[in-house]
Amino acid sequence: RALTLDGAGEGVRFFLQPDFSHVTSEVILYAMGQSFFSLSVGVAVMVTYSSYLPKEESLPRSAFSIVALTLVITLLAGLAIFPVVFAFGMEPSQGPGLLFIVLPAIFSKMAFGKLFFIVFLLLFFFATITSAISMLEISVASLTSKGKGKREKMALIVGLLIFVVGVPSALSFGILSDLKIFGKTVFDLADYAVSNVLMPLGVLLVSIFVPLKMKKDVLMKELGVSKNKGYKLFVLWLFLLRYIAPIAIIIVFLNVLGII
After folding, report:
1. Are 42 and 198 in contact (CB under 8 A)?
2. Rounded Cα distance, 101 and 106, in Å
3. Rounded to 5 degrees, what are φ and ψ at 13?
4. 154-203: per-residue pLDDT in tens?
5. How many angstroms separate the CA atoms of 243 and 260, rounded?
6. DSSP state of 34
7. What are the tens digits of pLDDT across the range 78-135?
8. Predicted local distance difference test score (pLDDT) of residue 236
9. Residue 151, C-beta contacts closer than 8 angstroms, at least 6 positions apart
10. Burial of 21 (0-12, 13-18, 19+ CB in 10 A)
11. Which residues, 6 or more positions from 238, have their beta carbon under 8 angstroms from its beta carbon?
């Protein structure tokens, strides 16, 4: 429905047509942060969940499926939102709140729109709560694996701590909207710190740690690689992980900081 609105074509062009004049080191940092966040890379979510997989599960196949599905869903979401943004004359840089402006406008143009909007909000709630659970599992698994308490107790304690820490971010859309730290609201500052600093830093440390600490034969075994099966791709992957990824992340960081 979004693609049939008047002016939707401009939104599609905005979403899909690249403008390389706007590509800066800061934009690349944002892109890395968004990619790492979407794929749960750099925060140990994938490491934690992959530890629960059966031995016969193919890690490369699972990784490819996750990346492919994330890409498809991202494209569909963009094609649903940006055409409506331009059709209704909205500003595409309004941030997360745009979701609750654009989607009601879409559903208002549909038959049984209110019903579909309620269903969407329920699905959106389950999507966010399951994402929160996956993040919670990292701390819970780490604490319980070290014998520091039962899962139920640790989940409750960590969940309450996260809730308390997250309250200022939630209130930054309301009564704390005028509170600025380094020119950003509490939510924007937390989002920037996590997505554009901590996650890339986590990926940088992983890209350094894995080649240094994990033996090549162990990596091959975990990835289901042998001399006759996927070895060339494995060598390329290891080269990218060992050299290209950390160097690229460091260069972007230094450029954003104005050092180079």
Report:
1. yes
2. 9
3. -65, -40
4. 888 888 998 898 899 888 878 888 888 888 888 888 888 887 788 888 88
5. 19
6. H
7. 887 888 778 777 777 666 666 777 777 777 776 777 887 888 788 888 888 888 888 8
8. 93
9. 140, 144
10. exposed
11. 211, 216, 219
CA angle 89, 94, 100 (to 5 degrees): 85
Q: Give which of 186, 164, 162 is closest to 174, Cα–Cα.
A: 186
Q: Where are the alpha helices (DSSP H) in the chain?
A: 8-16, 25-38, 45-50, 59-87, 99-108, 113-145, 151-171, 186-193, 199-213, 216-222, 231-239, 245-256
Residues in the chain: 260
pLDDT at 7: 78
Furthest-apart CA atoms within the chain: distance in Å: 62
Q: What angle do CA 220, 240, 225 make, to 5 degrees?
A: 15
Q: What is the pLDDT of residues 106-120, one digit of tens each?
A: 777 767 778 878 887
Collect all residues with Cβ–Cβ distance below 8 Å to 87 and sequence separation of at least 6: 2, 5, 6, 7, 8, 11
- Angle among Cα 197, 200, 201 to the nearest 5 degrees reads 75
* Cα radius of gyration (the chain): 21
Model pTM?
0.75
Give the confidence band of 239 by pLDDT, cuts at 50, 70, 90: very high
Residue type at 155?
A
